[in-house]
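Budget justification, computational time. The allocation requested in the original proposal was used primarily to generate structure tokens for proteins on the priority list. As evidence of use, we reproduce two of the resulting records. The first is shown immediately below.
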Amino acid sequence: MESNIDIARSSVTKYEKMAKAVSSRRFDWIMVMVCVWWLGGVFIDGWAHSNLPQLETFFTPWHAILYAGYLAVAITLIVMIMLNLSRTAAGQSANGKAPSLGTLITTSWPEKRWMQAIPAGYELSLLGIGIFAISGVGDLTWHSLFGIERGTEALLSPTHLGLALGLGLALSGPLRATWRRADYISSWRQLGPAVVSLTFTFSLLTFFTAYAHPLVTPWPILNIPNSGGSTRGITNILLQTGVTMSFILLALRRWRLPIGTFTFFFTLNAILMTVFAPKTVALTLPTPLLAGLTTDLLYTWLQPSEEQPISVRLFAFVVPGTFYLFYFINLDIVGPLISGNHIVWPIPFWAGAPVIAGITGFLLSYVMIPPEKPAKATEK
């Protein structure tokens, strides 16, 4: 009778020829759900760093939520990898049974055959889980040496940026998995994991650039002498426009997006950003909501795609322009509730800001669809 080790070795020989493991949409949805826990922990911890002056230790309830979410994502992915290994070994063994877990791991390690069991699109997610673990140990050491950061310092800490890198690689797993599928999909049921993953990854970037976010710091209504508020506000708008349109154009290049994508994208991100300035962001929520609805309608009308570059360029100009048009209208209405002022910027600043945001989106569309190169002349 064959031993477990003989069965496993026999399986490994055949396993080398197996196709790459493919992620199912069911698994993508499961990953999205556990990522809600992890990303939620990030924003809760961000709220604590921004609002609790007595935060003086690494061991807090907020870190517990964050790292528990990390473990949930890590365990989910590792379990799926082990299941793929087990199914392959069982399907190709003589008796149809998989070897023990220890034997399976040992025999799958040589020549990195275990990498074939990682669901397609989640290779970088596994790397991200490792980076996050290393950065977490580094974060504990950093806090022990330099204390707990608050405000913007917390967003620029090297160990926190390492955590962000690992988290971003993991969060974008469902996006990459859906990207790799060859079938044409456009419904929420099929494309939902990619849309949510895209929004989560985008929200992670806005989290770590919250110090330069127009919803968090509404410079147009802040009358602070010698603060350079006008130029800082314009710079914030340009930065966030670049980040936002990069994500939108990426998705637009790959899929026909389901209706409601942009309303979800803008509104969920804004809701998450309330952790930094609850009253301010809450009062400006009409901006992302109206901008998202308008963008969905514009997308349905223009149907921008690589085959229609003019529509893409028009879409890329109008979306950020519309967003910041709503932004200034919104601020002028709620400004007295936030700072006691309506818009204090000179007319050229607030009138030109939506235009320059639109120009930024327009220029980024050339990164997505560059002009065609002229054909080479035939030598005579």
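The second record produced under the same allocation is shown here.
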Amino acid sequence: MKLKTIMTLLIVCATVSIATAQKDKHFEIGLQGGYGSVWIINQNNYGLPEMDYEYTWSGGFNFQAGYNFTENIGLFTEVGVLNLGQQYKDQGAANSEIARTVDLKYLNVPVFFKYSYGESRARFRLLVGPQFCFLQKAEQTYTVNGNDFSYELHDKEGNTFDAGASDITDRYNEMDIAFVLDLGADIFLITDMLYLSAGARMFYGLTDINTSAYQLKNNDGNYEASHNAGVTFMLGLHYIIAGK
């Protein structure tokens, strides 16, 4: 009798556990926008004098989809765009004003592990994982005293190029891989159905964005790899479409 009672209790407990686990599983989708500071770590000015960095701001947006395996743990991905790059300003000979802006347009596809925690409407959330960045276009404006700058140089393969050209897509690798850390909160507007997300997203490119032909030494006779980096503040709206 005791054994039968124990077995019955175990079966009931197992059933409740399975039901609870199933309840916590769900799919969700969302739209997010972001704005923040972006950089190119180690500028590449093709052997010409390097310039002072200027604060560079940029925005972007993405579509997010994910699946929560439990109440706290999930796997998410996004498809989005974010303009990266860097602005530079400096003074040249005879107090000339030199300005350069590099604008890199990427299609970004991150794959995130998500951890969230909290008992109230606001839940702490962490997203972490790799982001695959596909270059769409690279452009620059390069001026001296407001006039377009033009100067012929040679790349590592001996080809002539204009340092001040506007379309510089061929100077950058087609793909970058970044490490992303996103810290923030999910704030439910409708319990288990609709929530706002807000957070700070930090990313750093792990690969050299310059193609091998343009990995040219600087004025000190050294070459330093260039990396994308930045911090953006994200705001999104998410809808739980199935499950809990």
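A brief technical remark on that second record: The longest strand covers residues 122-144.
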